[in-house]
Amino acid sequence: MNQQQRSILIDLASRFPPPSGVQFSYGTSGFRTDASLLESTVFRVGILAALRSIQTGSVVGLMVTASHNVVSDNGVKVADPSGGMLTQRWEPFADAIANAPDPHSLVQVKMLNDCNAFLFLDYHRFLVAVSAMGHPNQQRLVFVLFCFVSFFRFISVSFIFNMGKEVLLDDFVKKENILLDGAPSSEVLLGRDTRPSGKLLVSASAQGATSIMGTTANDMGILTTPQLHWMVRSKNKGIEATKNSYYDQLLMSYRLLFDCIPPGVSDNNMFEKLIVDCADGVGGEEIEKLKARLSDLKIEARNIGAGVLNKGVGADFVQKEKIVPRGFGPSDFGARCASLDGDADRLVYFYILSDSDKIKLVDGDKILTLFALFIKEQLGILNGAENVKANNSYQPCLGVVQTAYANGASTDYLKQLGLEVVLTPTGVKYLHEKAAEYDIGIYFEANGHGTILFSETFLCWLDTINNDLLSTSRGSEQQKAALRLLATSKLINQAVGDALSGMLLVEAILLHWGWSIFRWNELYQDLPSRQLKVKVIDRAAVVTANAETLVVKPPGIQEAIDVETAKYPKGRCFIRPSGTEDVVRVYAEALTQEAADDLARSAARLVDQLLG
């Protein structure tokens, strides 16, 4: 890093001093806290995004959002060139620069230069002092003082340097082989949701990105989080990356699926409107844009921005509270309803029970099951084609990825279908990474965040099969199955979970089978469950394995949990340390709600006795 670049960084960073007493940690959601504390952090994440763009030679994204959090919060996260989340390898660096105590701490060499300069000055002062003193004892005393002061200064600066080694840019740039001097131009796409604090924070992030010479920061305006991720992925694939092109792709794919609906299928859903709770967030404006271009689906959007963001509305509220969101009531009994979260990356469905504010939730597990059933059916139809039989050297692998929080009934149902189901630790980054190992990988969390990934190998194979079928049996069910799978790969946002694209795929599949939301929900019955948390002195004392379903440490606790679980039919229970607070989280499910509650309380008592 040359002196000019170093000076620019220190000068701009001094305008964004970090808040005192706040420690930031980059996780699946990026950095997220009260918006008033974030200005220095988003500035520094802008620097990180620019460095990532230079290193990869690709466009990188930066999104300012706090998703389902309260409106006074905000956050920032980076979209990698693939459109996915920031690589986990860079997360410690994100923590380090966010927590650097001052601008000079961002630049390692400056600290070493300061240390050398001070040592040289001390030595100069020593020579001046000695020359002014004739007596040897005085000279020896001054020499001892010089050694003591210089040694203390060297040790102090070295200690600070070593403590902050991960914080400093020079070290990281060298470690990652990022060439700043003469590097090609880099680009960061910026986006934000509708929070009032977003505009100021995006401005700070832009200054951070452009503080790295040669970097362009393009403000894409107010977007859903998935739209920004889609734009990053598209731009790096050489595809036009605008809102219009995003909607063009979604709607073209949806219409392809609509046109491939089997003859004779009931079209009752076409005459039933879908009512969407938009969480008073960015999804409201985007749903209205979608409605204007959709002729095959009736949508009524509610909570589109007049109320308080995420207050009594949104996918997180609906999924956790299991009651109607604001603006819904008994008059909506029987209607098919959906709910987005504040930045439109989560989606859940529900319907209202008669004369009640209670709902029947159709969550991410049910969405995953619907998608898995549809894709399995299309692969089955496609495998019956003579073209495919003749070229059976390639067999696509379909995998379903869940966490231990997925309802056991959904996992059992998927396994009964003959599908491969694997579990990962909690967190979208783990789910996404595992799903990418399959030709077709489907993942969802119960909260409604998830997507489908298609490998390039599978898509190339599918495109070849479709072309063959077009020439030999155009319009056949096998050719339509190939077309449906290709359309699905375009409709779903493969970069990240996307409530808008997911909603269109759900609607297309329900139309394809002529299913109501009630028929969909009857695929299986969720087992009753209960989640608790237990405050502990040290959450790190709990170590888990097997995707957090088995406690390795402390010894004995897993055996005790197993004994309790065995008392309840269909019982399942696990504990895991929280990633954000000093608590241990308890999950239990059983055949009845009373049994699930009792099992959860038993496990919580065990945790409290051993660790509380």
TrEMBL record:
Magnesium listed as a keyword: yes
Note describing how the cofactor binds: Binds 1 Mg(2+) ion per subunit.
Lineage: Eukaryota, Viridiplantae, Streptophyta, Embryophyta, Tracheophyta
InterPro entries per UniProt: A-D-PHexomutase_a/b/a-I, A-D-PHexomutase_a/b/a-I/II/III, A-D-PHexomutase_C, A-D-PHexomutase_C_sf, AMG1_II, AMG1_III, PAGM
Domain Alpha-D-phosphohexomutase alpha/beta/alpha: 57-88, 184-236
Cofactor(s) for this UniProt protein: Mg(2+)
Family matches, as SUPFAM superfamilies: Phosphoglucomutase, C-terminal domain, Phosphoglucomutase, first 3 domains
Keyword Isomerase carried by entry: yes
Pathway: Nucleotide-sugar biosynthesis; UDP-N-acetyl-alpha-D-glucosamine biosynthesis; N-acetyl-alpha-D-glucosamine 1-phosphate from alpha-D-glucosamine 6-phosphate (route I): step 2/2
Biological process annotations from GO: carbohydrate metabolic process; UDP-N-acetylglucosamine biosynthetic process
Ranges that cross the membrane: 141-161
Designated name of the protein: Phosphoacetylglucosamine mutase
GO MF term (any one): phosphoacetylglucosamine mutase activity
Active site (record annotation): 67
Record organism: Dorcoceras hygrometricum
Catalysis performed (reactions): N-acetyl-alpha-D-glucosamine 1-phosphate = N-acetyl-D-glucosamine 6-phosphate
